[in-house]
Amino acid sequence: LTSPEPPRVLVVDDDEDFRAVLSEILGARGYDVHTAADGGEALALLRAGLSPSIILLDLRMPGMSGWQFRREQRRDPELADIPVLVLSGGSPQHVSSTLGSIDMLPKPIDLDDLTAMISRLAKP
Amino acid sequence: MPESGVAVSVEHEPDSDLGIWRRAVSALGLWTLTVDAAGTICEVNDVLLDASGLERAAITGAKLWELAADPHEQALLRDRVFPMELDEAPPGFILRVKAAGGESHVVEWGVVPLDGEPRRILLAGVDRTSGTPGFESLQNDRDWYRKLLGQLPAVLWTTDRDLVFTASAGAGLALLGVGEGQLVGVPLDRYFAGTDDPNIGHHRRALAGETVRYDTEWLGRAYQTVLVPLRAAGDDEVIGTIGLSIDITDRVRAEAERDRSLEAERDARVRAEQALRARDEFISIAAHELYTPMTSLQLALQSVLSRDVEGDTAKRLLGLAEKQTQRLLRLIQDLLDVSRIHTRQMHLRPSEGDLAELARHVGARFSPEFERADTSLTVHADEAVVGVWDIERIDQIMTNLLTNAMRHAPGTTVDLEVHAVGDRVRITVSDRGPGVTDDFAARIFDRFERAASTEHHGGLGLGLYIVRQIAEAHGGTAAVSARPGGGAEFSVELPIASEADESEAP
Fold it and tell me: What DSSP line would sit under B236-253, residue for residue?
């Protein structure tokens, strides 16, 4: 067995500072962190071949929202299996059925909860 | 003149009979009087004087009809009853005779023409006031109707078969500008001439035997009317109509007023519900906006504290954390501003300053942020515009307008312009973004409003509201319009006040 590739994480959030913080934190934990400012950017990265172990997704974003991204993702057989963890300020009730079966961490987020959730959900 | 006052013409009676007559008349309680051909009262007897309480001197020489208690009966007696054919046996009549103290007696009179010159007429009356309860109550009934009609805002009328008014009464007539009885003789179609009033049609239906109930408006007042066919006694033939209209104008107006206030209440409730929904949405957005920097702050601090990171990474994370506290402070400031503005506590701290200089200063402060957003910012403020204003608040206006432009039109060209227009200064921020729809332009400066509310532009949607409030506190205005060539143009106009103006201000 060769040493495993670092697990790849795609952070989709319109908040520049939040993307920067997650990049620093998850990078320090050995993740290969990529970021996108909205659903459209994320889809472009995924269709260009970026194959993350998990997507951390915000819902309220200008441009393509998290809900719209999720609809596109589930419709695309190449992308549908990538695990998604929703990080959003909204309450879980706001997560509509269009998102499909999905895990969610409401903001504010505890670091230990976040890393535990990523380890559990990330595709090996 | 016989001392007894018995109204018997002595010349025509045998002396021997006179006493018997006099006693008989007295015993019967007959009221007697004689009048001449002109109706002037010549003699009256004691029975009449005793019963009525009237003075002999007040009666003799007066006209017969002046005895009538009722002006209508006076007229009736003068014009219709008294000009009688004396050679035939004239019919008797009933007259309510006035009495002392405002009272009256109902008296049934028999008429006896006397021979001889000058011509005299003997009237002998029986006081029926207490003796005939049926008659009395009939009279009283008539009084009651009169009194009722005199009090009610109603009009009672009758017409004949040709729809000519034959009677009209009621206090409601006064509102129509006519007196009691004045309509009598007037054909209905002449009264309603020149209008398409439905009353005539309703009267025709009543003549056809129908009882008609309807509401109408006439001369600006509303009436509820019932119209009944008038039939001859013991006969089915319709000889006319009788109608009663009740004036319901006040009730109709009260109902309209009540409807209006109900509607106003409903509107107020809808507005209150809208305001509540806007506030709920605002609270939800505000929470989201506070959570975002709070989450970054929490994660950065937890990461540094857990010694996951060190060195430059830790430094960068602490820098990001510090930046989040600034963002939180700004958001809290916005919230407080709105709450203060809402409770009308915006206190301006006016001082003299140059807004062109301020614009260049704000532009310089924003340029790194614009550069990062790949947006170009040009400040056009070459001529000094000096006046008295709250410089910090005007800074806030420019800051909010530029922040708004950067959020909604990133990657385009933004212009900040300050110049004097007459005695006002105009601050304009124009962008080349998607622009503003007319519908949204109407409420863009309202509280909690922002374009595409489900989207997330990193603000509370309060910036433009605060801009307008500051502008208005300075006696100015805020507006948005389409920029020629695409995009939005936000402008604020403020009066250029001098120090002198300020000191004059109360």
Answer: --EEEEEEEEEE-HHHHH
Query: In this complex, is the C-beta atom of B457 within 8 Å of any C-beta atom belonging to chain A?
Result: yes
The residue among A29, A74, A63 whose CA lies nearest residue A55 is A74
pTM (2 d.p.): 0.46
Q: How many other CB atoms are there within 10 angstroms of residue B69's CB atom?
A: 16
Q: What is the interface pTM, i.e. ipTM, of the complex?
A: 0.89
Give the integer Cα–Cα distance in Å for B28 and B16.
20
pLDDT digits (tens, 9 = 90+) for B441-490: 666 776 555 443 433 444 556 778 888 888 988 999 998 888 877 888 99
Residue B397 confidence (pLDDT): 92
Q: Which of B495, B494, B355 is nearest to B418 (CA)?
A: B355
Of A65-74, B37-46, B233-242, the one with minimum mean pLDDT is B233-242
Nearest Cα of chain B lies from the Cα of A117 at a distance, in angstroms, of 15
Interface of A with B in 41-80 (CB under 8 A): 60-62, 65
Round to whole Å and give the CA distance between B230 and B142. 19
Tell which B residues from 327 to 386 touch A, by Cβ distance under 8 Å.
327
Nearest CA among B116, B93, B145 for reference residue B11: B116
Task: Please say whether the beta carbons of B329 and B337 come within 8 A.
Answer: no
DSSP code at position A9: E
Quote the pLDDT of residue B4.
Answer: 43
What is the C-alpha to C-alpha distance for residues B397 and B379, in angstroms, rounded to an integer? Answer: 15
User: Rounded distance, CA A52 to CA A15, Å?
Assistant: 20
Residue type at B359 in one-letter notation: A
Cα–Cα distances (Å) from B140 to A10, B386, B463, in that order, read 103, 91, 82
CA distances from A118 to A52, A56, A114, B185, B450 (A): 12, 9, 6, 103, 35
At residue B175, the 3 state secondary structure works out as: helix
Closest Cβ–Cβ partner in A14, A107, A112 for B295: A107
